[in-house]
User: What shape does this take?
Amino acid sequence: MTSLSDRFWMPFTPNRRFRQDPRLFVSADGMHYRTAAGREVLDSLAGLWCVNAGHGQRAISHAIGRQAERLDFVSSFQMGHPDAFELADRLVELTPGDLNHVFFCNSGSEAVDTALKIARAYHFVRGEGSRRRFISRIGGYHGVGWGGVSVSGIGRHRRAFGPALEVDHLRIPYDRSQSAFSRGQPPRGAEYAEELTQLIGLHDASSIAAVIVEPVIGSGGVYPPPVGYLDRLREICSAHGILLIFDEVITAFGRLGTAFACEALGVIPDIVTCAKGMTNGAVPMGAVFVREPVFAAFMSGAERQIELFHGYTYSAHPLACAAALAALDVYRDQKIFARARALAPAWETAVHSLRDEPFVADIRNVGVLAAIDLTPLPGEPAARGTACGQSCFDAGVLVRTSSDTILLSPPLIAEAKHVDQMITTISRALRALK
Ligand SMILES: Cc1ncc(COP(=O)(O)O)c(C=O)c1O
Assistant: This one.
């Protein structure tokens, strides 16, 4: 193969290393990618936590094509198109509680920044503009916008970029010495939510706009919430007039067997973000849902006034709306969320079967998500994770590794034979590690 140019500055990638051994995919179908060299690779990450119904869903690509011919673009600033309104209605049918209004954007990062801005503006329009601080969580990933970087709980994502918003972080509600290898939501750890009360004592509720957490920490290592933890965060936020935001960019659209994880976990936040699976990954799109009282707070001024000075050129882009409507049809017609529910118990058994393999220090799972922590090679953090990811890829399975953690989130159409292949391949890779 001719060498790749360095003109494409690749995101979250060691650019120089990539060009020495590039992973180039030219097509995808169902559970598989095909490389430029014609090799099939099993996708154990649903692209990047987004292709929930599997690759190459024709109903979605055809809907995008038809829309591109019919209406290439219209702004949503003081004009619009019918599909955006239909999509809002269809999505709200899937949200639990009174999460009844939706703001469209183009990515998870934009959804997070939008949610944080809505939270501050909500307090502002109600005369509580001093509520500016956010509380998030160590290990949380919330995209790469300034808001998302500020609330991020992953040091290497923040440290090069200097000071950002005022944010405090709760700890990951997980103690490996108590909860290692727990299956699903750990029974212990709800008490970690009390740290929020301490932070409120420190800063005063009148300075805090919102708490933002992923209901399940995703790319930071798949940490399901301990039983009772999210309920307690909900109670504390409600008692202090603090908004609770769930970042569901990974968990929405079926990961936990329901449209939104908040439904599966039984806790309704005030604001929910989503993206990724919204279009099954086919076109960039994100969204922010707000509960009735949040929306109502903005709808009280003069009717001729713009209620929120926020939006994107491509908010509710016609191609994205067409893709999302078609994705919702696919999820419904192919019963994708029910498939996830059916797959979850076998998935749990399969990932935990790796417990006794070399270097496995912990395994966590919930829904169709899992993480396997490896004991790092002394003095060489990430070496084992990287080596394991590479040998899985060489053996035909794409897995994501973050430092020494293997992250798994396959398309929800995965069958037993795919799960077997993932587990067997990972097990062989672990046995070959030094
Ligand atoms: C929980 C969460 N929030 C936000 C984002 C950012 O989404 P995007 O990469 O679409 O901007 C991600 C991406 O993985 C995510 O996992």
In short: Residues 62-333 form a domain with the Aspartate Aminotransferase; domain 2 fold (CATH 3.40.640.10). Residues 49, 107-109, 112, 141-143, 214, 218-219, 247, 249-250, 275 surround pyridoxal-5'-phosphate (CB under 6 Å). The chain has a mean pLDDT of 97.
